[in-house]
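Many introductory courses stop at the sequence. We go one step further.
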Amino acid sequence: MRFKTRLKIGEFSRLMQVTVKTLRHYEQKGLLIPEEVDPWTGYRFYSIGQMLRLNSIRQLQRLGFSLEEIKDLFEGESHVPSIEQLTMKIEETEKLLQQLLIRRCQLQEWVDSRKEVKIMEKFSIQSLPEVIVASHREVIADYSALGMLCYSVIGPEMQRLGCKCPPPGYCFTIEHQQEYTPTNIDIEYCEQVEEMGADSSIIQFKRLPEVPKALCMKHYGPYERFYESFTEAFAYLEEKGYKIAGHPRTCYVDGIWNQEDPEKWLSIIQIPIEE
């Protein structure tokens, strides 16, 4: 009688270089059921034949077949894809190839645009005049929540209070947390208005004094990448010997309200400085 090799799930996992989690997932899908399960210990045992089956699963996955499609193949008589199925996968691969080529072009355009931005003058030293602002301070979940806060809360309340904003418009945020956190951000939104108004539970009016000198830097892209521009700005300040003289502001020029592509969002980082 020939001895039949039995491998515990851990040993099978090690030899076949696949995680136990993946093996259990295949088992749940009905793709690779253990040859034997000990009724007393619950130990799972695999056979040599299941090594071959696992190799077939991997090969079919590499060719683009889903686990559901592979299961259907194994339940059929041939256990291998038909010519029609292979032809369909070739067509799907052609479509994917076209999508990847388009993605490559878009990435190259992005690289070119970033190079153009680098060539342009990035930094300028400007004064920020005294302004009257309508202010709202709140702890928001993350940066993506800022747009909805402005649209659904701050904007309607400013309209209700009759706020008039001088053209071309000037709005910015100031962060008040002591350290970086990607969530629960203590942020103050300020928008320039023509005159002081009566405070409400949502909006407070304040007069911000002139900032004689501020480093201004353009930031293109989503707000989650502000850290990239702050890194450049602070390195520039150190190189030029400037000192920070107040809370940095982030001024919003183009955003989700007029640009669908986040890579085209334009913000201006304004850092009060002194020599």
